[in-house]
Amino acid sequence: MLGAIAGDIIGSAYEHRPLKSKDFVLFHPRARYTDDSVLTIAVAAAILGDGDYRRAMHELGRRYPDAGYGASFIPWLAADDPAPYGSWGNGAAMRVSPIGLAFDSVDTVLAEAARSAAVSHDHPEGIKGAQAAALAVYLARTTRDKARIRAEIGARFGYDLTRPLEALRRDYTFDVSCQGTLPAALLAFLDSDSYEDAVRNAVSLGGDADTLACIAGGIAEAYYGPVSPAIREKVRATLPAELWQLHERFLRAYGARLAPA
Q1: pLDDT, tens only, 110-125
Q2: How many CB atoms lie within 10 A of CB 75?
Q3: Burial 16-50 (b: 16+ CB within 10 A, else e)
Q4: What residues have CB less than 8 Å from 36, skipping those under 6 apart?
Q5: 89: which strand partners?
């Protein structure tokens, strides 16, 4: 999960300043945590608690109202009894990395990812995007086989994961849909040789940089192992104490499932 949060923070500085290069300051002075981090931690909190994703996201999101939520998610947070609103946005996928780490079978990961998405993003593409991101994390940590991840995610969800990242980078533009974000984030991971390289790949696409890097970073951490101490300390210095402590609780419960660095 820390890989996803770090990716969000790293990408945040470039979300509206698109890059087409991997040569950039990893933690820019403008870098901050966003809704991607808050809601990822909320999903983790639900797993640690009673499994109520809606309540965890609603309560934690309201405590951090300035995290940069999407225009459709803001009314969801403001509602006393929030209901799903048919979204196909990538918010369903950016928050699910804890599910791929915590659960122990493909069927359970897919079911929990769908449950977590449906509280807000109940469009079929929103559900599919969440499932693809969570399953990629699960397969990354359990198989450590990129060929299998590429084949299984591509076949199961219909995403084209055959295009070279360099070709995608040339044409890619800002896209907040699950169907536009997931293949790009997955390719950023699949064409990487380290956690940092995956995040740099994601940001270099010149799109929704924090979410691309959040998704790619969560998968990369599951595959390559825990992030470096330097990245960990940058995240710790950026997150509010409550969010860091929730991350630490989740790490104590499930961190042993990460491959050694």
Answers
A1: 999 999 999 999 999 9
A2: 11
A3: eebbeeeeeebbeeebbbbbbbbbbbbbbbbbbee
A4: 4, 5, 8, 94, 95, 210, 211, 214
A5: 177
Tell me how far apart the terminal alpha carbons of the chain are, to the nearest angstrom.
14
Cβ partners under 8 Å of residue 246, min gap 6: 41, 44, 45, 48
Three-class HEC string of the chain: CHHHHHHHHHHHCCCCCCCCCCCCCCCCCCCCCCHHHHHHHHHHHHHHCCCCHHHHHHHHHHHCCCCCCCCCHHHHHHCCCCCCCCCCECHHHHCCHHHHHHCCCHHHHHHHHHHHHHCCCCCHHHHHHHHHHHHHHHHHHHCCCHHHHHHHHHHHHCCCCCCCHHHHHHHCCCCCEHHHHHHHHHHHHHCCCCHHHHHHHHHCCCCCHHHHHHHHHHHHHHHHCCCCHHHHHHHHHHCCHHHHHHHHHHHHHHHHHCCCC
pTM for this prediction: 0.97
Residue located via tokens 């270099």: 204
Single-letter code of the amino acid located at 127 = I
Q: How long a stretch of residues is the chain?
A: 261
The Cα 174–Cα 150 span in angstroms is 23
Distance in angstroms (rounded) separating the CA atoms of residues 101 and 30 = 30
pLDDT, tens only, 20-65? 999 999 999 999 999 999 999 999 999 999 999 999 999 999 999 9
Domains and CATH numbers, the chain: 2-19+29-255 (1.10.4080.10)
Taking alpha carbons only, the member of 176, 175, 139 closest to residue 157 is 139
Nearest partner of 189 among 231, 139, 251, judged by Cα: 139
